[in-house]
Write a structure and sequence with these properties.
Layout (H helix, E strand, L loop, with lengths): L3 E8 L3 H13 L4 E5 L10 E3 L5 E3 L10 H10 L6 E5 L3 E4 L2 E4 L11 H20 L7 H26 L20 H10 L11 E5 L3 H10 L7 E3 L5 E5 L4 E4 L4 E9 L3 H8 L2 H7 L4 E12 L11 E3 L9 E3 L20 E2 L15 E10 L10 H11 L8 E15 L5 H14 L2 E3 L13 H17 L4 H4 L1 H5 L11 E4 L8 E4 L6
Parallel strand pairs: 1-2, 1-12, 2-9, 6-14, 12-19
Antiparallel strand pairs: 3-4, 5-8, 6-7, 10-11, 11-12, 13-17, 13-18, 14-15, 15-17, 16-18, 20-21
Helix pairs in contact: 1-11, 2-6, 3-4, 3-5, 7-8
Length: 519
């Protein structure tokens, strides 16, 4: 017998694991436990703080949502108005020394004339070809050509997507796209070029909110704090070292064994296969591809420059910098960096030169967070990456050579992006059912490996829906029908819904019931 026995064990306290735990706590039916190797909840949505007091998320996270249940749970965890800042996305692409409003393919009116001609030629060719096409695009590259044409493909889409994914566009499928990539409207683009106009905001994150304090990670710590302490095991005592799927026992690093009836796994599915020691699943999971993400942070003394203004995040398709995206992290919250009266010494100037004095001086301060991808198809000089990124910031006129750098940050996340390769669906359609046959629901950004439902709201709901599937057989819409959930307001579940118990044994089922008049 195991030391601890529960109906449902949840591995991982990132957004997916916390979604599962919140739902289990809400329906108050099956017994459950959530474990995580980290002392703090958050997973890939965590936040680090430098010794100087600058905050950096694990990449560019903002809160926008397709689900009312997700909103309810965040509002419960951080209920006060001053817990949040609300922003309108101000986003640009850096190209040939100027800022082109995002999305690039809708704003070629901002390009030099010769590039405008190349892009419009390509768009017209693509529109004409699309009229007679009888087959779907075979890969992401063909989708780009059919949708945007050769001009936009060569100038922006191919180089930018290679920098993001660290994989050529010819090796990626295109079923994942949905709301992720804006398809240009040829008439609108042409009209804007003639009238010299700019297209407005596009996409689900055109407006977003961000926590006032503690970064994105603070949200998930607050959500975890709404769960009963006795049902959480974080840190070394929550680190999984072995999963015996046949005996249904998980062994933790401190030697504790946990018996379960159903397992919701949110760790990377390739890591799960290794901890199970299942050769067939290990071999199968090797067919899944991912890229690593380097997050670089630069803290700078001085007022935020006029040229930076209230920009949110910025895209960099050119090869004059290693990063594909920069986030002006200090714009999200005044608490993402030290207050102006904090005294910090200058480490060095942006051009590498040493300051005249090592004396600590007051601020104000502002900060930039950069993301760089790495894979077997896109190597990175890790030892010099921070220096190369700072030079890239100078090359793109984000900072000046004489700017005083007071803090730096560099962390590599091995599993950064789950790549939608051509082979992905073939692997998942075999791997996930094999796990489910063993009573393991593997869900989450890397648990179920579907990038198109890998945002924080999606990830959270993958956990919620896994619980409902286990307890009541409900269909997991987010996992199985990404386009459906991404094109509607999902209001069926609410945290205030009443539940009633169907059974009272270890396999108890608590099904949410919509009260009369509830939206």
């Amino acid at each position: 017998m195991a030391d601890i026995n529960v109906d449902i064990l949840v591995i991982g306290a990132g957004p997916t694991g916390l979604g599962a735990a919140k739902r289990l706590n809400h329906i108050n039916g099956p017994s459950w436990l959530i474990v995580d190797a980290n002392e703090k909840a958050g997973g890939l949505a965590s936040t680090d703080v430098t010794p100087e007091g600058f905050l950096y998320d694990v990449g560019g996270h903002v809160i926008f949502s397709h689900y009312k249940y997700f909103d309810d749970c965040l509002d419960e965890a951080l209920p006060k108005e001053d817990d949040w800042y609300h922003h309108q996305r101000i986003s640009y692409v850096r190209y040939k020394g100027q800022w082109v409003p995002y999305p690039f393919q809708n704003n070629i009116s901002m390009l030099p004339k010769e590039d405008q001609v190349k892009c419009i030629d390509g768009l017209i060719d693509a529109a004409m070809a699309a009229r007679v096409a009888t087959t779907k695009p075979k890969d992401f590259d063909e989708w780009i050509l059919r949708t945007c044409g050769e001009g936009v493909a060569d100038i922006f889409m191919r180089p930018y997507n290679y920098k993001v994914w660290a994989v050529p566009t010819t090796k990626m499928q295109c079923q994942w796209l949905g709301e992720r990539v804006a398809a240009p409207d040829v008439k609108l683009v042409t009209r804007n070029v003639i009238l010299n106009k700019v297209a407005g905001n596009w996409g689900p994150n055109a407006t977003f909110r961000f926590p006032a304090r503690d970064g994105t990670g603070g949200i998930w710590i607050a959500v975890a704090n709404t769960l009963p302490e006795e049902k959480k095991r974080f840190g070394e005592k929550g680190e999984v070292v072995k999963v015996d799927a046949h005996k249904k026992i998980v062994t933790l690093k401190d030697g504790t064994t946990v018996g379960y009836d159903k397992l919701i796994n949110t760790m990377a599915v390739d890591h799960l296969a290794e901890k199970m020691g299942d050769r067939e699943l290990i071999t199968l999971s090797k067919g899944l591809y991912y890229s690593s993400t380097h997050v670089i942070g630069v803290g700078i003394r001085g007022e935020r420059p006029e040229r930076i203004g209230d920009k949110c995040w910025l895209y960099f398709p050119e090869n004059n910098c290693p990063f594909y995206r920069a986030t002006i992290f200090s714009n999200y919250s005044p608490y993402n960096q030290p207050q102006a009266d904090v005294k910090l010494p200058t480490l060095y100037h942006a051009d590498g030169s040493k300051p005249a004095s090592g004396e600590a001086k007051e601020g104000p301060y502002w900060s930039i967070m950069l993301e760089v991808s790495q894979s077997t198809m896109k190597p990175v000089d890790e030892a010099n990456l921070l220096k190369d990124c700072i030079q890239g910031l100078i090359n793109t006129e984000m900072i000046k050579p004489e700017d005083e750098i007071v803090s730096t940050y560099h962390r590599k996340f091995d599993h950064g992006y789950p790549t939608p390769t051509l082979e992905r669906e073939g692997v998942l359609k075999e791997l996930l059912p094999k796990l489910q046959a063993l009573d393991i629901w593997s869900r989450g950004r890397f648990g179920s490996w579907r990038y198109e439902v890998g945002n924080q709201d999606h990830s959270f709901m993958l956990g919620v829906e896994a619980v409902d599937n286990i307890v009541s057989g409900a269909v997991e819409l987010t996992l199985n029908y990404p386009d459906f959930v991404n094109t509607r307001q999902n209001t069926e579940r609410r945290l205030a819904q009443k539940v009633y118990s169907v059974a009272g044994s270890s396999g108890s089922s608590d099904i949410p019931v919509r009260s009369s008049g509830q939206a």
